[in-house]
Specification:
The protein has 513 residues and is α/β, with parallel strands linked by helices. The chain folds into 2 domains: 170 residues, 3-Layer(aba) Sandwich (Rossmann fold); 336 residues, no CATH class. Helices cover 38% and strands 22% of the residues. The strands form 4 sheets. Strands 11-12-17-16-15-18 form a 6-stranded antiparallel beta barrel. Helix 3 links the parallel strand 3 and strand 4. Helix 6 runs antiparallel to helix 12, helix 6 packs across helix 14 and helix 8 crosses helix 10. It binds manganese (II) ion. The site of manganese (II) ion has 5 residues, from loops.
Amino acid sequence: MKTFDSYEVWWVTGAQLLYGGDAVVAVDSHSKEMVEGLNNSGNLPVKVVYKGTANSSKEVLEVMKAANNDQRCVGVITWMHTFSPAKMWIHGLQQLRKPLLHFHTQYNAEIPWNDIDMDFMNLNQSAHGDREFGHICARMRLRRKVVVGHWTDPEAQKHIAVWQRVAAAWADAQDMLILRFGDQMNNVAVTDGDKVEAEQRLGYHVDYTPVSELMEHYKRVADADVDALVATYFKEYDHAPELEDKAGEGYQKVWNSAKAELALRSILTEKGAKGFTTNFDDLGTNDINDPKFVGFDQIPGLASQRLMAEGYGFGAEGDWKSAALYRTVWFMSQGLPKGCSFLEDYTLNFNGKESSILQSHMLEVCPLIAAERPRLEVHFLGIGIRKSPTARLVFTSKPDNGITATVVDMGNRFRLIVNDVKCIEPKPLPKLPVASALWIPMPDFETGAGAWILAGGTHHSCFSYDLTPEYWEDYAEIAGIEMLHINKDTTIAGFKNEMRWNEVYYMLNKSLQ
Ligand code: MN
């Protein structure tokens, strides 16, 4: 898995040669000091690399083309130290294919009241240089993030950090491969969509992968490796002592689950895939009593849970959009403390002002969101082609605020739907032994669920405790897709209007389709 360490963002300072050699030298040394300061702040996950001062159209073009071609570069930060006539940015910005952040900052913090003179003014011109640059970006309809603040201010640095995480996740998505074992669950609309458009717009590629090919990996898994993985399970997770009884059915189910995990891991690694989907109707040979049977004896739910925790994208029932989005959520959240998961709207809990939605899945909930040490259990699961006792991790999730997101295909565009949610303490579920969360969608159950449904949101979504709306705003901006954010201020009437206006906007704005 690529981490932030293998990426960098470039810093390009804008200036011009009008002010003479001394100014050029000062701009350069100030820029270096600022970039160093940002890198040493401890607030930025991705290294900033100073790429020099651009003083002409030719220099801008060169650095933007270089940014496009550099695999490590995930985005460009621009800042205008002096006045930088913006026509010189046109050709370079026309070429730039990487995310852009315009940092409106200034080398010095406060005005040096007693010493300020015209030389100072000629050098420290961000106040109007950044407006000139902003104008050309606006005129060119460029998608970008504008961060305003002093470069030493942790608040400004945090906005840059969010953008860096999103830009790195965006780069990660551009060569993302999602494997689909089996197809979409038959007849389901919301989790399907245009995979060609997804590749053009969102970057990732989705390949059908026959389950028979996965089974070739399953056959090759060595028993000793399975034994070792089972030992890891017993070490990492709470479990009933009888599960370790090698003669028992529970042990056999756990053992087979571990074998499935190793098979999945093997094919994902071999193909360089970053995510996968499963389908409970396609698990290998259909007849488990056939002497030539090669297949999973149960849904590989435990494997999906563990692979998600490791950063593999996952979508159930062929949901490739959620698989890709989960990988992006996980990637953006690397190093953040509270966790993320693929989840499904399971069942409603009408309870006045505390009305909420139980979030779960048959099995596949990521243990990163667990409030306590997960418990490894085996229970009968009567869904799909293989009705069988099935291993899974069982836990409840932390009571805390979070955010959930989904992407749906509206036919003429992708729509990102984001909902702030509040996870609350659930009651025990003694007869529903699955991992789960319980949340109230913002601004309240009635409005939140109503808006989500009006927007055409999925029953699957990608949840995170660590991300904030700003991440999704940056993501939608970079991708150039619609974003609907359901939050504390949402009203149904306002939300409906927003959707109507967006409909017209995306119909007229062909460049965003
Ligand atoms: Mn589902």
